[in-house]
Amino acid sequence: MAVKIAAVAKQLPKYYKETKEIIPFVKLWMQDQESRFQRKVIKLFEGAGVDKRYSIMDPVEVFTATSFEQKNNIYKREVIQLAEQSLKKSLQKANLKPTDIDYIITVSCTGIMIPSVDAYLINSLGMKKDIVRLPVTEMGCAAGVSGIIYAKNFLKANPNKRAAVVAVEAPTATFQLNDFSMTNIVSAAIFGDGASAVILSSFDDDKGPTIIDEEMYHFFDATHMMGFNLVNSGLQMILDKEVPQKIADHFPAIIHPFLAQNKLTIVDINHLIFHPGGKKIVQTVEDLFGKLGKNINDTKEVLRLYGNMSSATVLYVLERFMDRNPTKGERGIMLTFGPGFSAQRILLEW
User: Fold this and answer.
1) What pLDDT shows up at residue 292?
2) Quick one: pLDDT at residue 243?
């Protein structure tokens, strides 16, 4: 029995700014810092490979000394709406009703709320009373693919069922106003907010690429490299500068054995559906795949248009491929990296 991805749909927040429009706010924020440091930060924003980003907050709110409570309340209010809008869009694409979903996974790591987003969706959309829920909260950028893996395993064991994976993130709610570390600045330069919903199905008649295989890969002794510290002012980003090199060192072990167990090589892969973690990570992956005659142009374009939206971002890349209706028999590989440190992979066939 095959498990297929039936539809993917994104939803963007109401606020957006081009990077050139954000820089005046950054300059005001840094006005008491040393001038050489200010120039370095502006150059970083200009060279981050992100032309525009969307946000659940107006830039004035982002650069205002709000408390963790205030920011998290905005997060809660806005992500519920974004999640609902993206799920409605994906259901419409798949010609399904909310009551057609048997399993719902919601993914978010950029705020805290109990009950989780899925509980609100069940109520607002009138979903099944016996729907199975799974909130995924602590897997960061990898969690969009993680959610698909969990949904696939549920559907593999349950024929004629459908699942929804809803990833909704607001990294701007984690911006630390009094933190002038390069980690906080790099995070502000590359991250944006957004949501996406994926519908999966184990019905034989439903259309979409089939999930052929999936696997996680865990890096030992790397728990310090990526994540959040919970501090009084909110969620403080952890992002080690060695992450791109760590990915490069492990890349052959992440990709080639996974394909080999499916009797494939990279030559057999038509579509690279990769999470755009940031410019350096994108360049690292692009250099590795360029040598193999492949490109990650869609990954770069999603980073340019929206920034890194944590778990939702790879689903924006997936939607671009799905909307093109690839030729039957073509294959794609999805790849994300996240806290732990870990890589998540999915092999698709149209």
Assistant:
1) 74
2) 85
